[in-house]
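Narrative progress, year one. The postdoctoral researcher (J.K.) led the effort to move from monomer predictions toward full complexes, under supervision of the PI. The following entry was the first complex the group processed end to end, covering 850 residues in total.
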Amino acid sequence: MNNHIPHADLASHANLIDREYCERLDISDRLAECRKQFVLPAGVAYFDGMSLGALPKIASDRVAAVIESQWGEGLVRSWNTAGWIEMPQRIGGKIAPLLGADADEVVVADSTSVNLFKLLVAALRLRPDRRVIVIESSNFPTDIYIARGVEELHPGVEVKIVPGGQVDHALDDKVAVVMLTHVDFKTAEIHNMAKITARARDAGAIVLWDLSHSTGAVPLDLHGCDADLAVGCGYKYLNGGPGAPAFMFVARHHQEQIDQPITAWMGHAKPFDFDLNYTPAQGVKRLLSGTPMIVSLAAMEAGLDIWNQVDLHSVREKSIAMSELFVRIVAQRSTDPQLKLASPSDPKRRGGHLAFQHPQGYAVMQALIDRGVIGDFRDPDLMRFGFAPLYLRFADVWTAANALVEVVETNAWDHPRFRERAAVT
Amino acid sequence: MNNHIPHADLASHANLIDREYCERLDISDRLAECRKQFVLPAGVAYFDGMSLGALPKIASDRVAAVIESQWGEGLVRSWNTAGWIEMPQRIGGKIAPLLGADADEVVVADSTSVNLFKLLVAALRLRPDRRVIVIESSNFPTDIYIARGVEELHPGVEVKIVPGGQVDHALDDKVAVVMLTHVDFKTAEIHNMAKITARARDAGAIVLWDLSHSTGAVPLDLHGCDADLAVGCGYKYLNGGPGAPAFMFVARHHQEQIDQPITAWMGHAKPFDFDLNYTPAQGVKRLLSGTPMIVSLAAMEAGLDIWNQVDLHSVREKSIAMSELFVRIVAQRSTDPQLKLASPSDPKRRGGHLAFQHPQGYAVMQALIDRGVIGDFRDPDLMRFGFAPLYLRFADVWTAANALVEVVETNAWDHPRFRERAAVT
């Protein structure tokens, strides 16, 4: 039995969708039980899991144990006795199944930005006779800032920013690295990882994927794509907590050559020998720099222990069913031609969220948040709604889509308090 | 009334020091109450606060509030409503008084290693016509690894490693940066910050101080020394928790020019405009790269809120009184000529810990840990004992020094289980 209404059924659902219909979908949802493992505030329909994932119930106890028992009682001994020193690799190993990678190809450290920096420099070093970094203008802007920072450090290296989907035309024998955001942070459009990686490889380039909006949203197959390098975020779909550490993937066949620039003790083969010469550790451990942030890592591990109980393909099926339901409700009920889907209409071509355009998108989103429907806004006019199947119900989809239609149809957004910009939008 | 026995009194204390004498010192210790703000396991005398500081009692509740209320209930809204976005600067501002710096000159981010990397590259950019980085061989090895990593990124830049205390002779018009560990991680010897900074400045170089073993151990006066740049660690004397984020200091007069290489959204003037071009924020905010690790930051802030209640000069006085007491007990009671003080004998010339040499130092330390006296060991033969006046008692000093003498005098270290090396020593 399916845990959701198949896409085809949905499209043929000729009658007006209502809350009762959505609640029936929840009854047959095999992932429904998973929601019980999360804290979700009353009166909130949370569609911003692609920005900050919800809190796993076990996270608080896990962190309290690390603080009270391991730090408070174990003190410095816990680096050994509580396995702190192994956490970056242990948690990396728990992310690996979501990536289609092996446990020893993934490690957790630092932020996505710092990891992009490390792996972009490392990628250039894998292709020392080539000097071009190709990146798309639709990449997450930080990825572009990082590339510019790397360019400034390497005289002769050039960052070529190409329009989305135009990487093919930029590939030549000067290209060292192609650095791409796998799922577009605005529209959720998915890059064809297998195809791009294969073409880049044929052209002799390394591909560095940013999987921040992909991990936990869509099944990934880094091995099947013969991927080289990747980074990703811990605090979105992985539910690792605010500012959770990020991860790095390095394919096994690159691990002996990989040479990252922030060489520090935790990446040393023998960190506690305090040797004056740096000798990189074997494997992904050499990607580490400073001391791992244990308290944040403990929160993050709680999120992954939920992920390791579920089948990512079932999660993806439910995600598609939810986003298709959302689109359908809006299509059935909205009469405002200014409200437009900005994501691909084919659900297979988009990741875990939907983007809708509206000229008053910022104020519309504030009015929604005021009603307990939390999505987010990206300039100039995009409202994003993220589908986190581990904790969202089809009834929540009803609530959110129906509220969106209502706010737009009634001009409920048209109020000064909904136009005022906050520091983080 | 003094909160400790003055050094001169201690030296003239002709009688054999005993536990009762030390307990009397605790009675007149004005910082004694502070210990109540920490969790300390029963039966442990904790002398490894220079490696991992003890747990502030409030840390657990603070972190639980951030997790359960701010993350669980507030969700993504807490970036604004709970002030998450301001945490790196807010906590930096709480470190500033310990550095002799202004609140807007300090920011918390990433690890010490990553921060050293950022500021070392930034320092080179402040002196573009100079290409030499001077560093001492006695620096913490990670500092040397980072310098080597920066050297590899900058063809033409040369790292000169000089013996401890020999920086003067290396200063010429080619030196861009002098990068020094202020308090030696092995011997605790303090560099003369005012003198070295002045000489480097006269020679046209920038000084980048690593204050990891200094902050919270000795009063610092970055303004008085006209210091340029500094980094430091959050998890040692600051009691910020395992792997707590680190900090960066940039003197105000450098802030407009400072240009760090890991350019990413949190250092952008307008991070949520998602502009394709990077425009650095004003002030120390431009030193940020990725998303701040909120859970670890919350634990760290708890530690600083204790620091902000005490006078650092009183803390230093007690630290000196404790370490002098330790030295005296060992001198009075040990007959083993192989047990030698490896730190400066003048307490004003050493930071917050003592190092003792012994050919069997590793096994001696394991035997001490087995008895509940926790210090640590650094190859080849150094035992380190850290003095954290916020939570240590003079009676603990008695316990530790007396145990050290006993283990050495009775050869209690001479057992196979004390010789086996752990992953983290």
